[in-house]
Amino acid sequence: MKKKLLGLSVIGLAIFGLASCESESKGSSALASSAAASSAASSAASSSAASSSAATSSVATSSAASSSVASNLNYSVKVIDIDGEVLLEKDLVSTSKNSVLTDLQSATTVVGYEGTYGYSLSSIAGSVVDANYYLAIYENNSYASTGIEGLTIDEGDTFTFQVECWNTVASGYGTLTDTDVLIDKTIYKYAKEVLPTRIAADTTYSGSNYWSYMTVSLMANNGYDTSVFNTASATDTLKTAVSSADVTALTGANFGKYYYTNRALGNDTSDAFKTSYTSYLEGLTTYASFGEYTNPFSVSPAYSLNLGDKVADAVKNPTYTPSTSYGYDGYCWYLTANALWKDTLSADDLAVLPTVVQANSVSQAALLLPYAAYNQSGAAIAKLLMDNYYDSTTGFVKYTAASDKGTNYMIEQVYAGLAAYKVQRDKAASANLFA
After folding, report:
1. What single DSSP character describes residue 227?
2. Pairing mode of beta strands 142-143, 390-391
3. Alpha-carbon torsion 237, 239, 242, 244, what sign?
4. Dist CA 334 CA 341 (whole Å)
5. Which candidate, 51, 297, 327, 325, places its Cα nearest to that of 315?
6. What pTM was computed for the model?
7. Separation CA 359–CA 224 (nearest Å)
């Protein structure tokens, strides 16, 4: 098996020139012929033979020149995205054996750059760009030993370009587990197939779709592919609702709902919002004073707005045990609140995490993921969630808990949690977890 090269895209190999050698022809001495042997007849015969030989040589030269022009070469290309979606499958015809790159550029959008070793691919036909992934090249189902400029076309060839993870533990030099790769795939699948529809259906920032905007904000504001994570499908009605909102009248969870929707739409946070929000934060004295379900969501913008000093220590560091009414649901919120302000949990908290993931609804379990990325138990928590709730048939995290509020609403929580996990996992200390 050929070893895959590291990088965001396939690295082209250097083009080796072939040195051509000329062979010396050795001259031979002409034999003296007898004057008596020479006659007009033999001279004429010799001239005729020479003419015939020259004609034959001319035909051979013409034939060789004709064969150097390549005939039409029929081949096919295929582009497969990170989530398995086939973005392009096309038959091509070329008259050159080294035209895969130019043929693709004529057939679809190709993004790349000239690197030290040749042309380096970033994206084809809109394929996802992610620092942990690259476009692997397969030639007739075998991993190609060259970059795109070095590919040689033969009749009937198939070239497949597939987004794959280079940064895996299995490769021997990476950090992502199989579960991590699965999480990435389902996040991008959700972003491509579900987010646009959900955002297009929204008319107000105070509805249930605010988790969708949180996902967009998390990914777009931390350097991920904005061709996937965007609000292009947002309606004018929603934009008007946000732009005309009276931010001085916001209360509770509506601070978070407005903040994430506004950020996802690409707007700056106004001074008026910051002033109103600061007053709200200063009025919170205990964890319970604003309800278990709004923590940490209502307080999370304080993290990215650098208003942590306005949040009381009692709110940042609650002491909490599962109550009769909320059970593991409230406990998940409590643990996720801690993810905002610190990266340690008690031994008792760590011990109960697997139970929370397995026993509670998938949505609330997913809220543990931002914390999970902070410490050694992170990979185990992510694996438990994916093992219990990922549906390999659909490629999505499934929803099974009948007692929760609603499939769409809660699944949006799941993917906001997964996005937060991915950002913190990839970016570590540089992450703006609640961007």
Report:
1. T
2. unpaired
3. negative
4. 12
5. 297
6. 0.75
7. 32
Query: Under a CB-based contact definition with an 8 Å cutoff, are residues 212 and 219 in contact?
Result: no
Among the listed residues 424, 222, 221, 255, the one whose alpha carbon sits nearest the alpha carbon of residue 340: 424
The three-state secondary structure class of 11 is: coil
Q: What are the residues facing 165 on neighbouring strands?
A: 133
Residue whose tokens read 């040195």? 19
Instruction: Print pLDDT tens along the chain (435 aa).
Output: 333 333 333 333 232 332 333 333 333 333 333 333 333 333 444 444 444 444 444 444 444 443 334 589 999 999 999 999 999 999 999 999 999 999 999 999 999 999 888 999 999 999 999 999 999 999 999 999 999 999 999 999 999 999 999 999 988 888 899 999 999 999 999 999 989 988 998 898 887 677 888 889 888 888 899 999 999 999 999 999 999 999 999 988 899 889 989 989 989 999 999 999 999 999 887 766 545 455 667 887 887 788 989 988 877 776 655 554 455 656 666 666 666 666 556 666 666 666 666 655 555 555 555 555 555 556 667 777 788 778 888 898 876 544 433 345 667 877 887 888 888 788 765 444 554
CA distance 418 to 224: 14
Beta bridge partners, 176, equal: 168
User: 304: exposed, middle or buried (C-beta count within 10 Å: 0-12, 13-18, 19+)?
Assistant: middle
Contacting residues for 31 by C-beta, under 8 A, at least 6 apart: none
Q: Compute CA distances 379 → 180, 206, 243, 312, whole Å.
A: 8, 34, 40, 31
In angstroms, the Cα distances linking 322 to 328, 368, 400 are: 6, 15, 22
Q: 405-411: which pairs have CB atoms within 8 A and are 24 or more residues apart?
A: 406/208, 408/198, 408/208, 409/208, 409/211, 410/361, 410/362, 410/363, 411/363
DSSP per-residue letters across 103-131: HHHHHS-EEEEEETTEEEEEEETT----T
DSSP secondary structure string, 42-108?
HHHHHHHHHHHHHHHHHHHHHHHHHHTSPPPEEEEEEEE-TTS-EEEEEEEEESSTT-HHHHHHHHS
* Gap between the Cα atoms of 26 and 226, Å rounded: 69
Q: How far apart are CA 212 and CA 366, in angstroms?
A: 14
**Domains, the chain:** 73-166 (2.170.130.30), 176-430 (1.50.10)
CB 341 within 8 A of CB 390: no
